[in-house]
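Appendix B. Chain record.
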Amino acid sequence: MCGIVGYVGPRPSEGILLSGLARLEYRGYDSAGIAVIDADGTLGMRKRAGKLSVLRDDLDRAPLADGTTGIGHTRWATHGGPTDQNAHPHLADGGKLAVIHNGIIENFAALKAELVAGGAEFLSETDTEVAAVLLAREYHAHGDDLEAAFRATVRRLEGAFTLLALHEEHPGLVVGARRNSPLVIGLGEGENFLGSDVAAFVEHTRHALAIGQDQIVAITPEGVRVTDFDGAEVGVEPFEVTWDAAAAEKGGWSSFMAKEVSEEPDAVANTIRGRFHDDAVAIPELEGMDAVFAGIHRIIVVACGTASYAGQVGKYALEQWSRVPVDVELAHEFRYRDPVLDSSTLVVSISQSGETMDTLMAVKYARERGAATLSICNTQGATIPRESDAVVYTHAGPEVAVASTKAFVAQITALYLLALHIGRVRGALSAQDSARAVAELEAVPGKIQWILDNEQERTAHLARWMADTRSVLFLGRHVGFPIALEGALKLKEISYIHAEGFAAGELKHGPIALIEPGQPVFVIVPSPVHSAMLHDKVVSNIQEIRARGARVIVIAEEGDAAVLPFADEVLHIPLAGPAFEPLLAVVPLHIFAMGLAEAKGLDVDQPRNLAKSVTVE
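Structure tokens predicted for this chain:
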């Protein structure tokens, strides 16, 4: 959740910290703060509740003294509300030590009681201040050795955390630690960086190191040292960031979400690039897994939120093309029900950030019980891919808006590639069916672009017209059902109105009671060409809700005349095979949710109470 950045080097750190936080603000945006050690060796700190702009304005009015060592933080509140006092950094040791934190320290109450008994006083409601006060105590107990004190401190903490700290007696040094929470290193020339993800420093360097579980890093201008919690040096995995800073900027768009919807064709095209060979899918990074794929008897997809809906879409393709039974489970429920796992089970995790805590813990649980694990992820150097046996990276580029759009279509695309790859390895997919699917996938980017070119303005106009709507329902069948769920989630996330997605066949089993005159209902209609029987059933559903006064907005393929007499509005998508319709049908729903939120004057990039990467359970 929270955005974290650290810097040591020759340049004034305030601007570097603020620009890094601006790129990380999607991770947390209810307060922000920085701490800097100035040229005189004095630690200065400023923090404010509200968005990063509030802190910027405060610093413009009264700048901190220039310094070349600093840490910065944008917060998503867990312990204590979004107030100036609860914002990070938190100070200790008479204001000479500053700490920032992402995660939850589960044993903070016991530690706080111990520290209070020793005479400590606290100014905030946070668990983070407990870590700061504890670190100050250990600092003096370890002869003012910041790294040794840091090791002693983190060994006492329980839960999930990334911590960064600096002390004014050690200018040119920032220390950090991670347990079940993200932290990456940026390597510069005579300067080094730390961040929650590479967006924190990508404008300065693309050279990065991924820190492992229960590891500590110390950065100075001259170098980087990584150890475990006991002080033993460990090797780290280098990687190159494949996108530049401009990719994480709006580039003239009204919002990051608008930009990212426009990039949905590229997200699909870049994810399939280099993964076709002779009309078949061959994913080079999975070749070492082929023996595992040949022996699996079951696939379980684990994910949360939007990613779980991508998994539900992928289930249809995985079963159809690989002929392996597939279950899709919410990651936060998975390990708590003691699922049956063995070496013939493949657990596929989906996470845009690769840091989703519930999904990470599900992956660890699966590995502990002998299952093979594979990650679908959009972020290099992330924890979940490193904890998995294999990874299929989506290549959607950085996604900054909290509500996922281009990452969603990229995740579905990656699942299709995985299904086709496993189907080929297992001999379950004919060469003809493989070639047909490859051709369909190659055509998807152009078809999404057609929707953006031909239906975007009409969809946005419809959203503006419906700005006062208080509830919207979504219906779909087969692969259209998870798309209905996704459409409803997007509307809830950024428009703050009631929305629900239903399997259309469930309509008569209860949900039809919600239909009243004027109730808007989106219906994802299957193709009359490829899915004639399902198409007829959904048209019957439309007639049922129309008879009860619903306002019906249909998403249907071009040329579907059968729906026209029963629809109040029709949003068209190009003709595609049944498996590929979800990649098209979801695009108008993304546009509609964005348009409705904009019409209501809401912040589509940073909806209330949400953060892009959920790194706490």
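Further analysis of this model is presented in Appendix C.
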